[in-house]
Amino acid sequence: MQPPSHVGSTPDPPALRLGTLDTKAGASPIIITSRTGASETEAAILDAAAAVGRPIPTVVHLTLDVTSQASVDAAAAEVREKVGRLDILVNNAGFMGPEASLLDQPTEEYVKTIDVNLTGVYRVTKALLPLMLEGGLRIVPIMGSAASLGAACAGAYTITKFAMARFCQFLNLQYGDQGVCSFHYHPGGVSTDLAQGLPGSFRKLLVDTPELAGDTMVWLTAEKRTWLNGRYISANWDMVELEGLKDKIVEKNLLKFKFDLDF
Hints:
Blueprint: E1 6-7, E2 15-18, E3 21-24, E4 30-34, H1 39-51, E5 59-63, H2 69-82, E6 88-89, H3 107-132, E7 139-143, H4 155-175, E8 181-186, H5 200-203, H6 210-221, E9 232-234, H7 239-244, H8 246-251
């Protein structure tokens, strides 16, 4: 069995230590995409593989702007030509402008947030899903956020992250019977450049490391966990404990956004 091919940003060492788990990734080829150069990310991938004694993976860097249909289509064509298969698609592009009220935020900034965070996910998933359906793991993590739970900040960003959770649910509803597994993944509170537009009261909560986000993603995609389809998952959770709650989560259909009436 070949190791999975992987589209996304993988800057972290492919080792996971959660409870009693010790999982190493070993994905190859790894396809990374960016609007500009990604030489530092590629170097980090190669260094990480060497550090854990893995064979040096094949890394393919593609230029991709998720707001451009032509760019997305061209990247999808390159994936098919250069790699020929795709197991895991990490939708990781995101945008969030400075915190502002509805009346104060520029309309073009609000629209850009929706175009990158939601329509961009749609474009990339639609372009690459046909290749995934030809075989492989067919795992599509959607990089979400705790903002989808209703944080009262960054209005357009919060709205798009909630909508992305619903996108996961419909992706599984329409393609789950063809083996697609998609979930809504909150990578933790990491102090990224994107997060600097948040108010100070929120920025002080950004105490997680990129390694937490990357290592947890390794565990989540190491095998197909169809019971997580359409569910919200946070990197802050203990994955061993989450696995132990599987039966309860499935029975009560937990970790999904839904509307309940109970009079």
